[in-house]
Amino acid sequence: MDVRSLRIIEPNETLYEAYMQFCQNFHYDNWQYINGIGPMLRSTEDETLTCKEDFLDGIKRCLDFRSEDNLPKGWVPCSTYWLIDNSENIHGTACLRHRLSDSLITEGGHIGFAIKPESRNHGAATQLLHTLKLIAKNKNIDAILLTCNKDNAAARRVIEKSSGVKAEEYVSNITGNLIEKFWINL
């Protein structure tokens, strides 16, 4: 994979098949465990929705959640991005939160991201985070907070390679995992 061919786009309805293939790469029964999906997660328990209808609802939420309008309780405005190649295959996803809530300061930070397993170790995550830093700076964010599980050496390397400075380490109240917190000054 040539990372120079990768670019970031906002989610759009034409990439339904590519999005489904991206998510299936993770082999989770529940896609909520894929970081960076954010507003694409199902917002309703309405089992009558088809996958395509749910996908289209997710695209609408991505657009809506960029501002304070229509945010669920506890959410902050965020922008969702997909990392795609020239063939419009999705290699990564990211959610950039425009500000931090108290809970995001504790766990989550400004950015959640995921790279599909077969695209890892080729520089895709580094490129994604580099571009997200530029976008964050354009949104007048002076420093971005990222968190990762201590045992996620790949995420730590990407964060540190992107000028991340470790601020602290703690046990998550949500998962019980050991979490590392990093700041990147922009």
UniProtKB/TrEMBL annotation:
Origin: domain of life: Bacteria
Pfam families: Acetyltransf_1
Keywords assigned: Transferase
GO molecular function, one term: acyltransferase activity, transferring groups other than amino-acyl groups
Domain N-acetyltransferase: 39-185
InterPro entries: Acyl_CoA_acyltransferase (IPR016181), GNAT_dom (IPR000182)
PANTHER family registered for this protein in UniProt: ACETYLTRANSFERASE (PTHR39173:SF1)
Stated name of the protein: Acetyltransferase (GNAT) family protein
